[in-house]
Amino acid sequence: MRKLLFTSVCALTLTGSCWQAARAQGAQIQVLNAFATTNGISPYGNLCAGPDGNFYGTTTSGGTNGGNGTVFKVTTNGALTSLVSFADTNGLDPQAGLTLGNDGNFYGTTVNGGTNGGFGTVFRITTNGLLTSLYSFANNNNGAFPYSSLTLGSDGNFYGTTYLGGSNSVGTVFKVTTNGVLTPLVSFAVTNGANPHAGLTMGSDGNFYGTTALGGTNGGYGTVFKVTTNGLLTSLVSFNDTNGTYPRALLIAGNDGNFYGTTYYGGTNSLGTVFRVGTNGAFASLMSFNLTNGANPIAGLTLGSDGSFYGTTSSGGSSNLGTVFELTTNGVLTTLATFTSTNGANSYAGLTPGSDGNFYSTTASGGSGNGTVLKLIVPPTLGVGPVSNQVFLGVLNGLVRPSLQIQATTNLTTGWSVLTNLVFTNGAGQFFDPATATIPQRFYRAMVQ
């Protein structure tokens, strides 16, 4: 089944000139599946694309072993398979997404559970659901309660954070091998950060960058930090409420060499912000949410193939159940979609790009009440105009879709013809329509499988 993304009309004369830009109204949210308790409740973490083309994720509760949470697989057409139901001793309450390892397996954390007092675990799981508990946090010395996903380092080890524990009981950074040998690298000390909720992002310099939800030198509103693989930590930014409070999300590297992130609170409306930070700590607050365009983002941003960032908010929008938005690097925000409960609600997860050019994600509630898996189709922006008296030029700025097809006609009922020379370069598409300029008008549409 083909789906219409946009239609644009440009009326031309032999001597005239017309450029018209068109974009479909927002984005289309397709609910692929809704959770039903036994297969999970309330997914919080990002989906992870697997080597088989499917997506893998976790739910914080539900399942068949006392409601301790699950790991699931979902196809691009929404077929959902529950792979594991946690049993407390092997983990409880996974709130982070999975990370694909070099061996083709997934690695993750649970906030609670394990065999050493319930301080959380690190685990490995295969694509067919074989789960191995690699490490159970034992006490405050080596960390406790990992809320974050793991990050694969260039050395083949995984790096992560714990919300509590360490020598100061306010969180740690750790390294763990694929066979479960864990080494604490950093214990936060409040002034340099406290209580990291998010995982780490590797920079082009080989260091890791992250945030703490609390701590710092400006009232305890959180920090941005850099840490080396051997545990040398540098505090780069201390939030001050005006520029954000309580960052909970992973940083994302932009094409410009900076990192981009969100804060849950703070900003001019106390509803959260989006910010940019350089590797040297140069900081810029890009925008503050205002409820209408969203509020309280928990998830991080996703860099699109068009150079824009895409994200979700957990509340705000016309239904106050959250939004999906697009953001340019200079802070111009466009609300693409609003959650309405039927199509999901309260998104805690970010957007994961699929090989088809669409985004995939989850919501923590909505659907039948336990959360949803969804696909987001974001239409490109189209500009059409003549480059001569006999050739029309079209330009698409948007997300690359391998299945995208451009069609043209002189009317909206019959005679659609396929333009076969669509070329994508760096997220932009270009096509030529060799129609004569004596045609008074041409209609264009993009279709996607």
Labels describing this entry:
mainly beta, four-stranded antiparallel sheet, Immunoglobulin-like, 0% helix, 449 residues, Methylamine Dehydrogenase, Chain H
The largest sheet has its strands arranged as: 2-31-32-36-35
Looking at the structure, the CATH topology of the largest domain is Methylamine Dehydrogenase, Chain H
Mean pLDDT: 89
Number of domains in the coordinates? 2
Brief summary of the model shown:
The protein is mainly β. It has strands spanning 3-11, 20-22, 28-34, 48-49, 55-59, 70-74, 80-85, 99-100, 106-110, 121-125, 131-136, 151-152, 158-162, 172-176, 182-187, 201-202, 208-212, 223-227, 233-238, 252-253, 259-263, 273-277, 283-288, 302-303, 309-313, 323-327, 333-338, 352-353, 359-363, 372-377, 381-386, 392-397, 405-409, 417-419, 423-425, 428-433, 441-448.
